[in-house]
Amino acid sequence: MDRTKRRMPLPESLGVLRETREDSDVVMTVMGTAREWMELGELHPLDWIYVPSSMGQAPALALGMALAQPDKQIIVCNGDGCMLMNLGSLVTITAQDPSNYTLIIFDNGIYEITGAQPTPATAGGDNLVDYPALAAAAGFRQIFAFDQLDHWQQSARDVIDAPGPTFVHLAIEPVPGAAGPRSPSHAPTRADQFAEALQG
Question: Beta-strand (E) ranges in 66-125?
Fold first, then answer.
């Protein structure tokens, strides 16, 4: 990965979201974002920690939530490797056109939790895929990109509140020696509690 390009730390970039989220916002995290989100402190009833997960499926699962709960803002924290697993979901999202949907891609250029292998979108230190351009081609209404923490911090709430579907690209640093996330508790129980909070 080209170290001359600006990137922000993953925990701090998630911390911005945690600080700016409103009480009715649903925040879905997966893979590395789930691991780091749990490290930030006590979970909110509308946090969906997608662990265990099927890699690449978080954006589609969140789309279902957005359609079922149009009065709640649905925010998905997806990795670039996960996004590559299911690029077709971008078109499915825009075809449904949910105004309450924000997809945030945390792009570190690697499959972090399986050994830091470069993704097919990264070669020789250069990014081969322009994720915001993919989102634009798929028809997202709002598209944003950030590589500096202070800019993300200043803009995060306005970005989330923009009428979606919204696509956000965050350039982040890999977490050295990162492990896979562990489920915070018994999955069926978590699902029941989340469903109750979502419908409440």
Answer: 74-79, 101-107, 110-111, 117-118, 122-123
